[in-house]
Amino acid sequence: MNEPERAMLLSVHPRFATAILAGSKTVEVRRQRVAAPPGTLVLLYATAPTMALVGTARIAAVHVASPKEVWSAHRTQTGISRREYDTYMRGATQASGLTLEAPHSFDEPVTLSALRAAGAFHPPQSYRYMKGDELLQVAVAGPVVGTTLREELGDLVSA
């Protein structure tokens, strides 16, 4: 089910956002099953101290398996050490490796305060899906983001 009007808002530590946007980190790992079709637009939210939308990427593939299998398949693409991975995955029975492509940095990040000034905005602990009015709110909060969303998602955010 590919929903072009839906985007994933993904919270990541600033160092990982930087690595994703630089193309050196191409797989983001999560402790739960992620069901997003290839082509899904990802809005990258860098957590504290940055606290801003910093860019986009696209999901190329999602690999759901045991934490051991996800590490074996993607370790060189995750941008983290085995120790960090094991600490993060401790207790998890399932993991997802999101292969990301086409990273795009915003010239001007959209700060949390700007996002909240445009309406109620709560960055997720891990990720969540956004569509419709929420995407329009993000487009209003940051003109550069709005341009990108209009290019990526079309008329949905052209209000």
Concise description?
This protein has 159 residues and is α+β, with helices and mostly antiparallel strands.
How would you portray this structure in words?
- The protein has six helices and six strands; from the N terminus they run βαβββααβαβαα.
- The protein has 159 residues and is of the alpha+beta class.
- A six-stranded mixed beta sheet has the order 2-5-4-3-1-6.
- Helix 5 (133-141) crosses helix 6.
- The longest helix is centred in the C-terminal third of the chain and has 11 residues, at 143-153.
- The mean pLDDT is 90.
Q: Count all strands and give the number.
A: 6
Helicity range of the residues? 25-40%
Number of helices: 6
Please outline the major beta sheet.
6 strands, mixed
Choose one word for the global shape: globular
Proportion of beta-strand residues? 25-35%
Biggest β-sheet: strands ordered side by side in the sheet:
2-5-4-3-1-6
User: Which spans of ≥5 residues are poorly predicted at pLDDT below 50?
Assistant: none
Over all CA atoms, what is the radius of gyration?
15 Å
Mean pLDDT: 90
The helix/strand order is EHEEEHHEHEHH
Q: Please give the alpha-carbon distance between the first and last residues.
A: 25 Å
- Class from secondary-structure proportions: alpha+beta
